[in-house]
Structures are given as structure tokens and as C-alpha cells.
Amino acid sequence: MKKIKYIVVWALLVIVSQGYSQLYMNPRSISFADAYATQARGGDVIGWNPANLGLNDNPKFQFNFGIIPIVPFPALQISNNTISTHLLNNHIFTGDYLDDDAKEELLSHFPDGGLNFNPLVQMRFLNFSVNSWAFTLGAEVTGKVVAPKSLFRLALFGNEFEEPIDLSDTDLDLQSVVTLGIAHGWQIDNVPYLSNYVDKFSVGIAVKLLAGAGYSGFDDLTANVTTYKDRVILEGDLKGEYGMGGAGLAIDVGAATVINEKMTANLALNNVVGFLNWGIGEAGKAEYSFYADIPSSDFGDIDSIMDESLKKDTTYTVSGIRTNYPAYMIIGFEYRVLQNLRLFVNYRQSFSNDMASTTTPAFSFAAEFLPANWLPIRLGIGVGGNDKIKWGVGSGMTFSRYRLEWGFAQTGGFFNHGKGLAFCLDQSLVF
């Protein structure tokens, strides 16, 4: 039982730790709703496309920072698959009495698989580029937390005595990692056949050294709670893994082309190699069966009762466990309509459903308009992936040597129907 508590406590630490998502967020990527692959330059290419470092317009030197150097401004994205302002205003904050029909209507908005919560927070402590080399240092959290629908039914309707509450849809899969990324891009001239169709061609590679802080995950959970007039019975089976201290590696590869003065395209395979081996501190697997019969008179002594409720405890340490650093592909295209108006399209495809990734493809479309050379106006919209729908807006002040930029986005819907939001502020020096 102590190991169960350890897994839960560690999961909470991972959730509130500093981190960022697989698609490294910055003001432009957020405002473009992720249609950013052809625009990434400097240290921002890592996680997008390292081949952009080989293009002629990559700056000779770029240094990104948040508030002041080494003190980052966090890029935040908080999202879920159910709860929106519209849902709260129309079903909960109405001031009306909720009868059974109203409660059923509210509950119908929750998926059968439960409430999926994905917190993402980016902290980049160091991010800069020199010529065709880029470097970044940050921390990230990746994963998901799922609360079963039965808990929300319990909150709305209560529970009949002797009627079990199924908790088996509860899920947890989280890891917290510090990342050191190094990337390089090369421009290649006179590529056979290709040189007849494009003006410029480059390739690139990024290597990300991963230092794991912690990992927690459920492999399988079967559990239910049954209430009686004078007692509560909790029973179930749990299989899980945990790890403290890890090391790993992830590699991105890409290619980029300047087709002509109006069109640019690129392709990247990110985390084509990506893994974390856990166990530098401790790693273990846990398998429990428990049955707790808790009389109402003993609710104040839950800890000792739960410790006595274990029927099976095969928790054991292992030499190490391995988790994936999910791989994904990005194809980007850019078209310059006018000197001050550009359009962008991205296609993103992940190759697994673990660590908050999904094999559902995502498409993003964006535009950037410059009413003045220093004033960008950015808009983007995306469909598919975990977000289902995402829209963004952003702007800033982009002078020749200094840039201050911001981006805001909503996920899962528009305005009051949105189920999540993202925001980032960034400064950079460019030479």
C-alpha cells in the first residue's frame, strides 16, 4: 500500500512540475495553431524541423528569452475533452434547480471513457542559435490523467446503497523530463533531379539528450466502490510502473526546400528515435489486489484499514523500465501571396497513442499579415489530433534586432465552447 501512495504522490509532483509538450510551444506556433513548420528558425527549430537551420534566412545569431535571460516566461496549455465555459454557464452556473433530466443532459456531455486532462507547461531556460547550429535547454511534462465518468454521475446523483461504482476507467501516464537539444542544418547544392525544381534545399538533424525526473503509469486498473448504510467496500486490482531518475535520447531529422520566391516546403520526422530508460534512482513494477471493508465508525482510521486491506502485493524493484518519447511527422508548406501576406499549411501525424499522443492526423492553416514592417498580425486554425479543433491569434513588435511576441489559442472549440487554452510571451535578440 505504501507503493500505491508513492505512485500517486509522484504523479502529483509530475503534474505540477515544469515542462513542455512534444510540439515545442512559442508565440508564433500558438498563434498559427501549429502551422509553424516552415517558419521555425534559430533554437525554435528543435521539435519542428532542424533543416530550417540550413536556409539562407536563418539568422546568424538568435537568442530567445522570457522575462530576462535564464528566467523563462512559461508557455501554458491547459486542456480537457469535456468542460467548457458554455457547459458551466448553461448547466451548472444557472441558479436553477437541477432535476434528474437536467443532470442526465449534463452528464451526456462527458465521454464514456471519462474526463481526459492534459496539462502542458513549457519552460525554456536557454534557447539560442549560432549560424546553422541551435541549442536549447528546458524541462517538460508529457502524459495524461483520466477521471472516470462514474465519479461525475456520483457527484450529480449520489449512489444507491449496494450499487457498485465502477472506477476502472481511471488512467494515469505521466513523465517529467529535462531536455538538452542540439541541432544542425546543411544547405545542399546541385541535388540530382531536385535542383531542376527548387531554388534551395537543406537537411538537418537534432539530437535531444533526455534526463528523466520521474515517471508514473497504470498498465491496468479494475476497481469499484460499494456503499452500504453502515459501511463502504473498496475492492480491485492494480498494475502499474514507476521510475525515479532516467536517461534517454531522441533524434529529429528533416528536409526543407525553397521552391521559388513565393513557395517553401519542408518535411520532418521528429523523435524518429525516442526513448527513456528509468531506474537511475529507483524503478519498479507494482501489482495489487485489495479488499477493504470500512465501517462508518472507522472512517477516521482509513490509513491503517487500507494497509490491512491488501490481499496481494507483488511490488518489486527492477533494473529499469523504458518509456517512449512519441514519434511524429510534420509536413509544412508556405505561400507568399504578397510581400506582407503569407499563408501556411501543416500536416502532423503521430505514430502512437501513448503519452498524450494520438494517431489521429492534425491539419493546421494560418496567415500572417504585416500592416507595418514591425507589426505582425497572425491567425491560425487547426483540426484533428487531440485538440479536435484549435484556433490562435498573435502579434507583437518585430524590429530588426529585437522582437517581443505573444500568442493565444483555444482548443476544443471557439470562445465559450473552448475546452482549453494556450498562451506564450517571448523575447528575442536577432543578428
Provide structural commentary.
This protein has helices spanning 2-16, 27-31, 85-91, 100-107, 149-157, 302-308; strands spanning 61-65, 75-80, 115-130, 133-147, 165-166, 171-187, 200-227, 231-258, 263-295, 310-313, 316-317, 321-324, 328-338, 341-350, 362-372, 375-384, 388-398, 402-411, 420-430. By secondary structure, the chain is mainly beta. A hairpin with a 4-residue loop joins strand 8 and strand 9 (263-295). The protein starts with a helix and ends with a strand.
Q: What share of residues are in beta strands? A: over 45%
Note the total helix count.
Answer: 6
H/E series? HHEEHHEEHEEEEEHEEEEEEEEEE
How many whole angstroms does the radius of gyration measure? 24 Å
- Main β-sheet: number of strands, strand sense, barrel status? 19 strands, antiparallel
**What number is the mean pLDDT?**
85
Oligomerization: single chain
The computed structural class is mainly beta
Globular, elongated, flat, extended or rod-shaped: what is the shape?
A: globular
Q: How many DSSP-defined strands?
A: 19
TL;DR?
The chain has 431 residues and is mainly β. The chain contains 6 helices and 19 strands. It is 12% helix and 54% strand.
Entry keywords:
about 425 residues; mainly beta; 19-stranded antiparallel sheet; 6 helices; about 10% helix; about 55% strand; globular; disordered N terminus
List the topology elements.
Layout: H1 2-16, H2 27-31, E1 61-65, E2 75-80, H3 85-91, H4 100-107, E3 115-130, E4 133-147, H5 149-157, E5 165-166, E6 171-187, E7 200-227, E8 231-258, E9 263-295, H6 302-308, E10 310-313, E11 316-317, E12 321-324, E13 328-338, E14 341-350, E15 362-372, E16 375-384, E17 388-398, E18 402-411, E19 420-430
Antiparallel strand pairs: 1-3, 1-19, 2-3, 2-19, 3-4, 4-6, 5-7, 6-7, 7-8, 8-9, 9-10, 9-11, 9-12, 9-13, 13-14, 14-15, 15-16, 16-17, 17-18, 18-19
